[in-house]
Each structure stands twice: as C-alpha cells, then as structure tokens.
C-alpha cells in the first residue's frame, strides 16, 4: 500500500509539471512573445526581475507577466490537491526549483555530465538549453520539458502569421 501511495504522490507531481508547462508554453509563453511586451523587455534582459523592473520604471503592470508565468501551475492546485496534497506541493516545489536552476546563466556554469544525460533522457530543460532561448527567443521553448519545444515553434509561427493578418 505504501508503494502505491508513493507512486500516486510522484504521479501527481509529474502531472502538475506536465500540465503546468503545457499551459505555460502554449497559452502564456509563446503568445507573450508574439502579442506581449513585458516578457521580452524584462525576462529576456540581463536583469530578469519583473519586480525590479516594475519598481525602477514605476510600471506596476509589468508584474502581470511574472504572475502569469506561475499561474499555469497554480490553476491545477485545487484539482490535484484533492488527489494528493503532498504530490501537489512537490510538483510546485520542483517547478520553482527548476525555474531557479534553469536560470543559472553564470558564464562558467555547466550542468554536470551525469545530470545532463539524465535530463536529456527525461526531456528536461537544462540551463544551457534555456540560455539558447534567452539568446534567440525563437528557439528552445518548453520551460520544463524539451518535447514542447518543436510544437511551440510551430505555434509561434502560426501566431505571428495571425498577428500579421490582423495588422
């Protein structure tokens, strides 16, 4: 029975990451690159803090994209909490730890080889891959999972064509 509980907890954590990253990528992140303003100005700059930008520029509306980046994970909490509170908390913690880890842009930082292999095998975005996205906003979508990258690029192309048609 204990093994079933552990598997349920880990499954809910993984489900939260999969669903959150899907919504974050296709409903928030890619559309923000096409229609938004503050994500590109703030998050893709050397100082990626929405709070700092909002404070320095007296622009409280710049906080909204920062919140919208977390919302795709938070919307699943009420549902997943019913299935496993611990799994939900673990999923949220893993999501936040991954945000911190993937933004390791120190010039000398390299993901350890064994961890890099594990991440590649599990389709998890490494800081090196995420750095590619910050250098070229048309590449390497999928905040947590790399398999969202290719479909996201097609979605980006479609949304840009849609924006041109509206203009």
Structural description of this entry:
- This protein is mostly helical.
- Helix content is 72%, strand content 0%.
- It has 9 helices and no strands.
- The termini are far apart.
Blueprint of the fold:
Layout: H1 2-35, H2 38-43, H3 50-56, H4 63-74, H5 77-83, H6 85-102, H7 113-122, H8 127-135, H9 149-166
Helix pairs in contact: 1-4, 1-6, 1-9, 3-4, 5-6
In short:
With 167 residues, the chain is mostly helical.
List the keywords.
mainly alpha; 9 helices; 167 residues; 0% strand
End-to-end Cα distance, whole Å, is 59 Å
- Taken from the alpha-carbon principal axes, the silhouette is globular
Largest sheet report: none
List low-pLDDT spans: none
Find the structural class using helix and strand composition.
Answer: mainly alpha
Radius of gyration: 17 Å
The mean pLDDT is 89
Q: Helical percent range?
A: over 70%
């Amino acid at each position: 029975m204990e093994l079933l509980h552990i598997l349920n907890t880990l499954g809910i954590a993984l489900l939260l990451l999969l669903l959150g990253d899907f919504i974050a990528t296709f409903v928030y992140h890619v559309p923000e690159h096409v229609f938004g303003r503050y994500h590109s100005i703030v998050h893709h700059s050397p100082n990626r803090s929405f709070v700092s930008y909002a404070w320095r520029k007296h622009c409280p509306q710049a906080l909204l994209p920062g919140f919208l980046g977390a919302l795709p994970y938070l919307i699943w909490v009420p549902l997943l909490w019913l299935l496993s509170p611990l799994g939900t908390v673990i999923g949220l913690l893993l999501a936040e730890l991954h945000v911190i880890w993937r933004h390791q842009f120190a010039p000398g930082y390299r993901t350890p080889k064994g961890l890099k292999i594990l991440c590649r095998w599990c389709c998890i975005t490494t800081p090196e891959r995420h750095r590619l996205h910050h250098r070229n906003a048309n590449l390497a979508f999928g905040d947590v999972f790399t398999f969202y990258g290719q479909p996201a690029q097609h979605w980006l192309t479609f949304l840009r064509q849609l924006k041109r048609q509206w203009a």
